[in-house]
From TrEMBL:
Keyword set, alphabetical order: ATP-binding, Ligase, Magnesium, Manganese, Metal-binding, Nucleotide-binding, Protein biosynthesis, Ribonucleoprotein, Ribosomal protein
Gene of this entry: rimK
Keyword Manganese: yes
MF terms in GO: ATP binding; metal ion binding; ribosomal S6-glutamic acid ligase activity
Domain ATP-grasp: 265-448
Stated family: In the C-terminal section; belongs to the RimK family.
Protein name (record): Probable alpha-L-glutamate ligase
One Gene Ontology CC term in the entry: ribosome
Requisite cofactors: Mg(2+); Mn(2+)
Top-rank lineage group of the source organism: Bacteria
InterPro entries in the cross-refs: Asp_endopeptidase, ATP-grasp, ATP-grasp_RimK-type, ATP_grasp_subdomain_1, Peptidase_aspartic_dom_sf, Rimk_N, Rp_bS6_RimK/Lys_biosynth_LsyX
Cross-referenced Pfam families: RimK, Rimk_N, Zn_protease
Biological process, per Gene Ontology: SOS response; translation
Amino acid sequence: MSEPLKLGWEEWVSLPDLGLPALKAKVDTGAKTSALHASDIEPFGAASRPKVRFLMHPIPSRPELAIACSAPVVDRREVTSSNGEAELRYVIETRMRVDGREWPVELTLSDRGAMQYRMLLGRQAFSENVIVSPNESFCQPRLDYDVYSSSKVREVAPDRALRIAVLSRETMSYSTRRIVEEGEQRGHTVEVIDTLRCYMTLNAMAPDIHYDGKRLPRYDAVIPRIGASITPYGTAIIRQFETIGTWCINGSAGITASRDKLHAHQVLARQKIGMPTTAFAASPKDTGNLMELVGSAPLIVKLLESTQGKGVVLAETKKAAESVITAFRGLSANFLVQQFVKEAAGEDIRCLVMDGKVVASIKRTGAPGDFRSNLHLGGQAAPVRITKTERETAQRAAKAFGLGLAGVDLLRAADGPKVLEVNSSPGLEGVEKASGKDIAGMLYDMIEKRARPVPVRKARRSRKSA
């Protein structure tokens, strides 16, 4: 057996599973249970596997420094404080490390913001091989709060459980199911929220989002899967999440711009990103000039809010183009006239861009006799190797809209890649099956990386006045 570990009435400890590498704790043999400071305590997860998340302020003199922690709940226990007040507290179990030795301890969560010590160690936290000397302090090596101001805090951050919202009306779609399954497999709590059942409180001091009669909790991330038919309301909900301060994989501005074909092509043009020559006009008197600007037939006539290849027509001749345009105008529909890239031969490339990088690319080929390559219309997909120029074009296009996850559709033209569309809610099924890559897993890699604690910058010293 190793030598007994000697503790004084105050010691430095670390809780590695909570991402707390240095804590000053008070050792109190008169107390039975141990306590850890926690604010914004919030339970989450399934009833069979409850979890709790909270904010921890490890440095008493730095209340602005908060570390987000989460842990499984092992119990809820009534604890009587030193002033005689009883409180029902969540109880978690986590590893405690002192001078290279570690063992599990149970901690009750309570607001100790007014206390000098953020952690209290009671009798139950001590193993048989621990000796407490109440007349001594810091019998074990001292730690330093500087670890919270160092980039090392990212390296030691634990893989904590996250609470993630998926905004989707299609709970049984492949993409939504994969996102939920992958998240739960990693120990996260993933909640699918019907976008149209959300409603908002517009308040300068306390903006909120409600769902089924209750205020939605705080999420670590929101994954929008907004259908084209509900874009205005869906982006309004995302703006509300952004107002609250929740990180959304794709922002409201990027989704709005990408959904409007005219707006999207203006964004691409402003960034000098290659695309088929495109023209737009409101007056029927400009039909002839509109077609001349794009070039000779065949031409593509496309509704501004078309999706999955619907509302996209190939006009083989000038007369056919005029007929289609007349029909669209008769329906009071807004549309674009676009150059047809013949050399693409009914094929396009879908590049999936995540966190600024192309993580997968597939070639989509249209069904026999169809110039559209959308998989929803019977197209086929296969993995493809893209060029450096195509990769850079896809990445620039996603960046132009500020999207963390985007499907960028390219045509291989004689003078270089042309961006057809930037999809802010790309489907995962076609890309995963064709490329063989775990796209949902990559998505969570990005989310987990983003959710890790951020090192706190040291405040600059103010110059003394002369």
